[in-house]
Amino acid sequence: MKGNLRSVSVIGTGMIKFGKHRDVTVPQLARPAVIEALQEAGVANKQIESIYSGAAISGWMAGQRIARETGMSGVPVINCENACSSSATAFREAWIAVATGIIDYALVLGVEQLTRLGGGTLPLDQEDIEVANGMVMPGLYAMRAQRYLHDYGATERDLAAVAVKARRHGALNPHAQIQTETTVDEVLSSRRIADPLTLLQCCPTGDGAAALVICPSDLAPHHNRQHVHVLGSHLASGRYLPGFRDMTIPEITLRCSGELYEETGVGPEDIDVLECHDAFSIAELLYYEALGLCGRGEAVRLLHDGATSLGGRIPVNPSGGLLSKGHPVGASGAAQMVEIVRQLQGRCGVRQVADAKIGLTHVTGGGTYGFDHGACAIHLFGR
């Protein structure tokens, strides 16, 4: 963004354990995360000037319903729907409002209750020509995987290794939906969903909520916890690309990250830890390359070198990512931010990335005809 902007800090975070929460309402699902974020921030309900709520398929006015549940009815609510990027988009809108001086204190939340759908793949819009002809998200990513394997000589075992890493990290995260490790052979022997992707290479759907409180850095309360600053925020929408598209190039992520790096002066070489949108195993490999962690066709080597594992040069998805932590669509972006903020504060226990100073979150949203994705939101945080 252009112009004189105030420095903005995250002063409170909250999150529930992701999983199956069928017996509560959406507001009840979000309530513990909101209360935790407010208490951690040391901010009273009455100090919150606006609520920015991200949810994709959790019903009308989710933010207002949650405000009522948490004693903040009457506070202005901005509801954001941007598919999987919903709560990351909500965070960007809140950051703009605080950075430009429109408000001082904002609550950002992400929530989703996918169990209300009963299971299966996410429902896509039938007016989309590819969806009308049978396209589902696992099929889309499976085509990307097949092309990547063909072009760069990668194997199905390489894809499975992504899921193994995710589960290894997720086993250390008490908020993760899946907290058990697995092996390459177990991944490959799990039910085949869309060749070459098996069940354990697809993110589990479930329910979840996460929340953050932000304010100008000069108003951040003085307590023992390290404040984390928002170094940059960028949102991109998909470009219509008729004709041939190279499915191994995530165009929107490449463009969004490049613009953010240019705006902030922070490059991939400066990042200590990141959370990316690993909805399927192949996605993480493609995003290594699009985010500039390595060159084209080098993602498998980066993975096997251990660079993206805990203890490596640039740990990716220390939370377990979408593959292990889970992917309650509207909550995923906010949950990534909670993880990165806590990593930069040194609060992640056995999965802590040593001396992390700069972190990145990346989330994409929507599979739409002619687009790589419909939306992409990337944020940089630092201490």
Describe the overall structure:
The chain is α/β, with parallel strands linked by helices and 383 residues long. It is built from twelve helices and eleven strands.
Strand order of the largest sheet: 3-2-4-7-1-8-11-10-9
Largest sheet: 9 strands, mixed
Separation, N- and C-terminal Cα atoms: 21 Å
**Helicity level:** 25-40%
CATH architecture of the largest domain: 3-Layer(aba) Sandwich
Fold-level CATH name of the largest domain: Peroxisomal Thiolase, Chain A, domain 1
- Structural class determined from secondary elements: alpha/beta
Order of helices and strands: EHEHEHEHHHHEEEEHEHHHHEE
CATH superfamily of the largest domain: Thiolase/Chalcone synthase
In oligomeric terms, what are we looking at?
single chain
Poorly predicted segments: none
Topology (SSEs and partners):
Blueprint: E1 8-15, H1 26-41, E2 50-54, H2 62-69, E3 77-80, H3 86-99, E4 106-113, H4 129-132, H5 137-152, H6 156-170, H7 184-189, E5 192-194, E6 197-198, E7 207-216, E8 228-237, H8 251-264, E9 273-275, H9 281-290, H10 299-304, H11 321-324, H12 329-344, E10 358-365, E11 375-382
Parallel strand pairs: 2-3, 2-4, 9-10
Antiparallel strand pairs: 1-7, 1-8, 4-7, 5-6, 8-11, 10-11
Helix pairs in contact: 1-2, 3-12, 6-9
Defining key terms:
383 residues; alpha/beta; Peroxisomal Thiolase, Chain A, domain 1; 2 domains
Task: Please give a quick description of this structure.
The protein is an alpha/beta fold and 383 residues long. It has 2 domains: 8-118 and 207-217, Peroxisomal Thiolase, Chain A, domain 1; 129-203 and 230-382, Peroxisomal Thiolase, Chain A, domain 1 (3-Layer(aba) Sandwich), CATH 3.40.47. The chain has 12 helices and 11 strands.
